[in-house]
Structure formats: structure tokens, C-alpha cells
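Obj.: predict assembly geometry.
Materials: sequence records (below).
Method: joint structure prediction, all chains together.
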Amino acid sequence: MPSLQTLRDLDDHPHPLKLKKSKAPFICDGCKVEGFGFCYQCTEGCDFFFHKECGIRRPPACQKFFEGCEFKFHKKNPLGGDRICDVCALDIQGFLYQSTCRKNPNVLHPCCANLPMIISPPYTDMKIYLCNKIKTECLKCGSKKRSADKVQGFSYASSDGEFCYHVACLREVGVENWIKSYCQPDVIADNENKPLSLIDLALKKVAPVGMGAKARKQ
Ligand SMILES: [Zn+2]
Ligand SMILES: [Zn+2]
Ligand SMILES: [Zn+2]
Ligand SMILES: [Zn+2]
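Observations (raw C-alpha cells):
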């Protein structure tokens, strides 16, 4: 689905929002989750950001992991109490999708509900799949468990199990790399004309880590 360049007449903010690359990581004013890269920003200069997914609110791609369920967008947690996102295992504090088909409905951050199913590191034919469980230890936090809670979230993993990251950990890697790239002027110059995505940023760090893990095992 093509992205809308400008969102107008939202009841969330008095000014139109335009889709453009953020200059720094931001906290989304919809779901309250950190983001970076392309997002909706106020055209009048307010400090107001929406993830693309929090602005467009299309049916979640992750729906296929929850058989027979449909998800509805909500601006506020309709059931009250603490809710944990089934994909990243972090708290729901703003916008969410809630499933309509269970007694204890699943909930997802909008930015987690529309993650790509397959990612590929640049310059390789490696494929990394979004999985609804954690198969091996995460390369960032070193653990299979992401949270003390029952919900552990989804992961990105290669089919051979060499590459495995919690979704939340991969997002943190992306944010860290974003900050680093802004501290190194030559990296900015290199990347100025390229759209930076979570995956581009994450894998600059990820690729060597993955190879290191492989080398140690041999
Ligand atoms: Zn958001
Ligand atoms: Zn504004
Ligand atoms: Zn989430
Ligand atoms: Zn992790």
C-alpha cells in the first residue's frame, strides 16, 4: 500500500503531518514507542511525531500469526490495566491493535503490527524471518527470555538459527546505530541520499556480530 505523503484533519493534532525522515530518534505521540527514520512530522514545527503505521492505521500484517483473529485499532487500551505487546513484549502506553476473537485479546503496538515478514541484509542473499517465538539466544541481550512476564515477543531469525534477535532488541540496535551515525559526519555524508530503515541500520552492526558467533562455534 503506498504511503500518504500528508495527513490532514486528524483529531490527534491541529496541523497537517508530513511524511519525512526524522533528524533524530523520536518518541511516537501515538503509541509512545521510540522510532527513527521516515515518520509523520508536524508541518508547523511542533515537536509531534507519528510512526508511519500510527498515522495510516492499515490492517496489521502480523495478523497472520494469530489464526482466525482480526485486529481493531484503538487509541486507548479498551480493557484498562497493564497490557503487553505480543510482538515486542513492551508495555502498551498509547495506540494499539486489539484482537476481536479471544477472551484475553492479543494486543500489538501499531509499529510492531506491521513489521516486514522477511528482511535481507544488504549485499547478501541471507533471509531473516519474523517468527512468533524465540528459537535461540538473542545476539543482543544474550538470552532467550526478553521479559519476566509470560509474553516474550517475536524475533527475527535466520532458518539456520545463527541469527536471532528479539524484535525489541533489534529496534534498540537500530536506534543505537542511528545515534552513532549522527556522531560521525562521514557516515552522514555517505547516507544522506539513502532512506535509512531499521533494517539498514541494524544490520551494519548485526552482520559482524553474526559472523563472530559462527566463528566461535567452529
Ligand atoms: Zn507509534
Ligand atoms: Zn503542530
Ligand atoms: Zn510492540
Ligand atoms: Zn534480545
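Conclusions so far: Residues 118-210 form one domain.
To do: check interface contacts against the pulldown list.
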